[in-house]
Specification:
The chain is an all-beta fold. Helices cover 0% and strands 53% of the residues.
């Protein structure tokens, strides 16, 4: 999927991406595919959606989109 970063808290290592169709998915910094492990709000990204540990879907393999 493609979208953009809408929130990122480097201190907690948690963020949120929004897909092009408006759905939002949380992610942990360990799910960022490329270093450094932080992304600025507004950064275009590509990611895949996977089931999370608590049942909600999460973004995985999050990487900045060229």
């Amino acid at each position: 999927m493609e979208g953009r970063v809408v929130a990122y808290d480097a201190a907690r290592g948690r963020g949120t991406v929004e897909s092009r169709d408006g759905r939002r998915f949380g992610f942990h910094c360990t799910r960022i595919a490329d270093a450094p492990h932080d992304l600025a709000v507004g950064t275009p990204v590509r990611f895949r959606v996977v089931p999370g540990q608590l049942g909600a879907y999460e973004a995985d393999a999050v990487e900045a989109s060229p």
